[in-house]
Amino acid sequence: MADVSADVAVIGGGIVGLATARALQRRGRARVCVLEKEARPGTHQSGHNSGVIHSGVYYRPGSLKARLCVEGARRMLAFCAERGIAHEKCGKLIVAVGEDELARLDELQRRAAANGVDGVTRLDAGQVRELEPHVRSVAALHVAATGIADYPAVVAALAADVAAAGGALLPNAELLAGHASGGGWLLRTRAGSVATGLVVNCAGLQSDVVAARCGARPEVRIVPFRGEYYLLRPERHDLVRGLVYPVPDPAFPFLGVHFTRTVHGLREAGPNAVLAFAREGYTRTSLSLTDLSATLAFRGFRRLAARYWRVALAEYHRSWSKPAFVRALRRMVPDLRAGDLVPGGAGVRAQAVGPDGALLDDFSLLRTERALHVLNAPSPAATASLAIGEHIAALLEEAGPRP
Ligand SMILES: Cc1cc2nc3c(=O)[nH]c(=O)nc-3n(C[C@H](O)[C@H](O)[C@H](O)COP(=O)(O)OP(=O)(O)OC[C@H]3O[C@@H](n4cnc5c(N)ncnc54)[C@H](O)[C@@H]3O)c2cc1C
Question: Among 107, 184, 235, 244, which one is most buried in terms of CB atoms within 10 A?
Fold first, then answer.
């Protein structure tokens, strides 16, 4: 006999899992439960990010990221407003420092138009200085639609909604194994067993592990990339007023170290993107032999490492050396000094890598018998979470068995 029985079990109480559980309930799935490994929801990526509501300028037109980010940003702003959650549509600058970056700025402007992102304006160096007197540039894009939000408060509001609609939120309930049984599943967790018709895997940094525990064989694996932050000392907040980003390198899904403002009034600088030796490793010395050996054994990782070892070494250097980190930021803000920054927090990105060593660019979902696995939901998945949840609930409504 199972301890809990449900129509759908969502594995992972991060922002994507909770938004999915809520969307399933709103489409009439009455008995939804959320299994969370930790004592509280939102402990990993959803509680360790930059707090930005992305607008959708970066992503390939037609991709899931582009579509769900634009739709998700609209939903997220409305949700925060409705629920009294701290947020602000503050806009951001994407700054070209060298002439060689102008073609990429043009491409971002084209993508923004193709993705339906309104309010993207080209600025010259003088106009940039009016907005951000300490920022050096040859040109920039001003993206009015970008915002900031208190994502931990969003996680708490989503969890409250799921509970209020009769959903069971099970803390300390790490999924250990899933067995297909009698047209559904019997799940073994650290908090007892769960009988369910459908499984939705939203386990973030552990999504490939959870997929394997449910008998799926995804081609991709999660490779964890830590992002470390510094904080600007309050007396130096005049150096950057808002969100200031470099033009990203199109070879990588990461945005390059940048400046952000949080809803709590902090100014953050970062995050970098360092290969982490533990999936939930928030410090430079975190090491999990299980995680590291799984990463090293993966052919896709070895191919990735062969291709990008120079970039990886430069990122390690920048992780251990504050002057190197500051140098990257000083390209945009030359007045910045090492003493203006103090160490901040860190988050770990769940980035899926294919067997060919490619970093998966788009969100990725895998359907199997009576299960759906979210295998790649890195940034901007916090922004997009409400739209991702809707998308998954619609997919399951089309195909899944109803209670
Ligand atoms: C440094 C950093 C900066 C970012 N900045 C932004 C940003 O500004 N804007 C933006 O939109 N996005 C940003 N992101 C991305 C965003 O945070 C993530 O895409 C999003 O939080 C993913 O949510 P999730 O629910 O999929 O994952 P998570 O929040 O990681 O949740 C997964 C959950 O699954 C649980 N779990 C794992 N294994 C099991 C198991 N076996 N059984 C039960 N539960 C399990 C975990 O404990 C966890 O709570 C950033 C990410 C990082 C790391």
Answer: 244
What is the Å distance from ligand 1's center to 149 Cα?
A: 15
**How many angstroms separate the alpha carbon of residue 179 from the centre of ligand 1?**
25
CA of 329 to the centre of ligand 1 (A): 26
Question: Which residue of 283, 379, 391 sits with most ligand 1 atoms within 8 Å of its CB, as the best mutation to test the pocket?
Answer: 379
What whole-number distance in Å separates Cα of residue 169 and Cα of residue 189? 13
**76-131 pLDDT, tens per residue?**
999 999 999 999 999 999 999 999 999 999 999 999 999 999 999 999 999 999 99
* pLDDT of 367: 95
Q: Where are the domains of the chain?
A: 4-46+152-219+364-399, 92-144, 221-359
CA distances to 43, 272, 390, 391 from 169, rounded to whole Å, are 14, 33, 19, 21
- Whether residue 336 has its Cβ less than 6 Å from ligand 1: no
Please state which CATH number belongs to domain 221-359: 3.30.9
CATH 3.50.50.60 fits 4-46+152-219+364-399, yes or no: yes
- For residue 389 and ligand 1, the question of a CB distance below 6 A is answered with no
